[in-house]
Every structure is written in C-alpha cells, then in structure tokens.
Specification:
Elements: E1 2-3, E2 14-15, H1 29-36, E3 43-45, E4 48-50, H2 88-103
Antiparallel strand pairs: 1-2, 3-4
Helix pairs in contact: 1-2
C-alpha cells in the first residue's frame, strides 16, 4: 500500500501496489483484510466492541493461490510491507479495510 498527497491538506489517497508481472486484476476489501489482517475476536465500531466482526484464521490469506492464482504463482507467499504503528496511516488503512471487508466493498 502507498499513501501520499500533493498540495492537498488532509488528502491522503491510499493505493495497493503489486508487481507489474502479477496477473491479479483486482482485490476486494475482504481479500485485503485476509492479506493484511489476522484472526480476531471482534472489532470496534466507535466505542462499541462487536463480536460479530470476528474472523477466524481460516480466512487469513498468505499465498497467491488463495486469491485464485495457479501455476507458478499458486504456492508463492504474499510478502506484505507496510508502515509501523508509529505513523497514523497504518491504523487508518486498517480502519478502512476491515469494516469494508465485512460489507463486501471492493478495493
């Protein structure tokens, strides 16, 4: 993922970047949640804890084959890079991905 803005106060577009040779055309928010997230017992909506936002480890996505790629790609691991929690973008991205993942929104 990449963030940034140019001369736009408060503007921070978010992009997911994959290598140009990757045959994957698109990702859903649910898939991004599976790639960047992990098992959880629930999730926050404002100040309320929602157990219904739980997700088991079977929904973790760690290989390209789990996204439907075959052949040489099938067993290759997905290498995830991102910002540390020191920077606000990491939590902002998380706050965008998991709620959308549970509602079926596309990336």
């Amino acid at each position: 993922m990449a963030t940034g803005s140019y001369d736009v106060p408060g503007g921070t577009p978010v992009r997911v970047v994959v290598h140009r040779d990757n045959p994957l055309a698109q990702l859903t928010m649910k898939q991004l949640d599976g790639i960047f997230g992990s098992e959880r017992a629930g999730g926050w909506e404002g100040t309320s804890w929602r157990p219904g936002r739980a997700r088991g480890p079977e929904q973790n996505i760690r290989t390209w084959g789990q996204l439907g790629l075959t052949g040489d790609w099938k067993d290759k691991p997905i290498h995830v890079y991102g910002l540390t929690l020191r920077y606000h973008q990491a939590t902002e991205i998380s706050d965008m991905v998991w709620p959308a993942a549970t509602s079926g929104t596309r990336a």
